[in-house]
Every structure is written in structure tokens, then in C-alpha cells.
Amino acid sequence: SRVELIVLDEVDSTNAEIVRRRAGRSGSDSGRIPVCIADCQTAGRGRRGRPWQSPQGQNLYLSLGLTFRGSFAMLDGLSLVLGVAVAEALEQQGVAGVGLKWPNDIFLGGSKLAGILVELQGELEEGVVQVVAGIGLNVHMKESAEVDQSWSSLDIAMPERRWGRSELAASLVNSVLDSVDEFASQGFSGFRSRWQSRDIFSGKSLVASQGGLAGNGCGIDDTGNYLIDDGEELVRVRAGEISLRVR
Ligand code: BTN
Fold it and tell me: Binding of biotin: at which residues (predicted)?
């Protein structure tokens, strides 16, 4: 198998666990991709330093340790590729209407269903970059006092289905590995339209978190920057630089 599966009852963060397991290993060991899945996280992390609520037995918390030939510059594109991979896996599982909120939040029915955290572990050797890709997918969660944004879960959105976390995990891992292979060999170009067809910002009036930028959402360019029509020109927004929201 290409994957070294690590299944844990409890961990601080599956992303942190991947980092620990790979630290100090040489580049030429098994060559397998470590995938860590935990039943709960005590310090789950979200983007922008936020916590990720990770109650036991409810949701999917999974991380993959990926290795790329290339530079850090590829990370913005990778982040969007992972969003596409998660959206496509959910669609294969029968979820209709999956949306992507730039750069890579997974939305369903106007609420956040899953989040992705891409972290750079470091450079293994010249030109070989180690990345940790973490996915949190809300499956059974029905209430949480501590989430500060509008969220959903598969049980809430599709109560008639009996969701199994193992099947969802297998589907997510397969989709991510396929997409990452394609990204590594052919770059971002094949993902642009797959990302754009699920863009929840498209045609919406948007504001940026800093800098006073406002305008209409126009999708992404061929490297994954978001495009905003401010009435005069198309302004490019780089992933990680600022965040966007509907006005
Ligand atoms: C976001 O803020 O949208 C990203 C959330 C990512 C959460 C997942 S859960 C598995 C992995 N381990 C973590 O600590 N975070 C990611």
C-alpha cells in the first residue's frame, strides 16, 4: 500500500502527529505516505490560529504527510487542489451541492461542512518540500456551543443517510492522493475549472478583511489567486494574504 495508516483514539492534533512521526526520519525511508486518523483531538487546529472543535466519535479528523518536488510557492495551489479533492470525494459519496469558499473551505447549504489546514513542515532536502494536509469533516456533530461560524454536518444536511466515517475516510484519502498526483505531475491548470464550478463567491459582492478592497467575485486565475472586479479592474488576491467574505 502507498499509505501508512495510523489510527488513534485521541491526539492533540493529527497534523502535529504527522509532523512528530516524520521529524528526524531520512527522506529515503519506506516512501509511504503517513495518514493519521483520530477519534478525537484535544487541540485541533484551524486556519489563522483558530481552534477546531474535535469532539469524540463525531467527526472525521485526518491528516496526510505529503512530499513534493518543488518550492514553497506551490503551496497556494495545493491548498485549492485539496478543496477540489474533498468536494469531489463528497460528491462521489452522494452529497449534492458542495461549494468551495476560497481558498479551501467546504460549504453545504450556506454553512461550513469541512475545513482544510495545509502546513509546511520543512524542506527535506534541496527542492523537496514536506507538507501536512489536515482535513476536518463534520459527520455526526449536531450541536456545539463553541463554533464561531455557521456550520453544518452530513447528519444535519442529509439525515436520511447513515454516514460511516471509515468509508468517508477511504474516499477522502483516495481522492486526495489522486488529485495530489495530478497536481505534482501537471500543475494547477486542470483544477481551475473544477474549483471554479463550485465557487460560492462567484458573482457575489465581497469585501476583503484588510485593505479596503471590495467588489464582485470573479473566480480564480490559473494559479489559484482570487479575482475581484472592483468596478475598475480585476484585482488579484493571494491565498493566505487576506480573507474574503460576502458583503
Ligand atoms: C479550517 O480552519 O477550516 C481548517 C480546519 C482543519 C481541521 C483539521 S482536523 C484534522 C487536522 N488536524 C488539525 O489539528 N487540524 C486539521
Answer: 13-15, 41, 45-47, 112
